[in-house]
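Predict structure. Input: Aminoglycoside phosphotransferase domain-containing protein, 313 residues.
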Amino acid sequence: MIQEVMQRYFSKPITRHEILRDKDRLVAEVEVDGELFYLKGEKQPEQFVETIIAFTELMSNAGLPFIMSEQALDGKRYVEHENLLFILERKGIGKEIKALRQEHLQELGKSLGKQHVVSSTIDLRFGSGTSWGMFGGNKTNELGDYDENELSYLDLVHCVEEIGRFELELSMVKELYLARRAILQAEWSELPAGPVQGDLLPYNLLFQENKISVIYDYDIAGDEVFVNECVANAIYLAWHHDFEGNETPEERYNTYINAYTSERPLLNRELEMVPHLFAIIRAFRYDRIEEGIEKIKQGDGKAFLDETIKLLT
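Output follows.
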């Protein structure tokens, strides 16, 4: 299959290829005449792939280091083969950062802010959400319907109810969480939103001298509320990513937010939503809830639930 698809891009034979992923989507590293490329086969609607191509072109033209798909021999930027839509990306220059420092957080925050500024000026839309989305209803696992925050909340509620303890703590968690969610939901449709890459985090980036040199991977791109993605990214990077330095998670969070707002200042309406977003996202990050559920099952859940209440207060 790889050979057949690559013949649609090059008249020269490929030197070698290596399958990097073959589940849900196909990703292969391919070498042609000394140059390296990534071939990605997606089980996505044609309209979605075409929107990704248009989105990356807009971002690249705005000066952001988005990798654009290569043109096939017929001039198109994707190839259809065996029920997959393939795009080919030239390997970028730089290295992946495993452990972050403050300067990386500043660069990450600025980059997201710049992307959102561009997104706010264009009419393009994906017509689907991102994995950060809220209020989709969770009727399916499709992006836009899927609401990880609500699912984490429901998992915790189910666990505590099943254990049959901590009734007072659970009642307080429910009251605080649902109150903040209600405030957010009432404002959600009025908050600035637009098309985003959807996963602007270190594992989808390359760096050169602490600056982002390459942005890649767009399979979960979609339309998102800007301030939601900003706060969610900041929380993940500050509390859940490897870090070098003595800064506290709170200091890291503020570094990211300040960098973002230096590129895109938040509107008053958005600023009013930040405390509510921070509370429910910080409290119900899925990895935090997974650890907490294990503590509850082992009979050591009181401290975790008290911390959850404090985060929601």
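The beta strands are 16-23, 25-32, 35-42, 79-81, 84-90, 193-196, 205-208, 211-215, 222-225.
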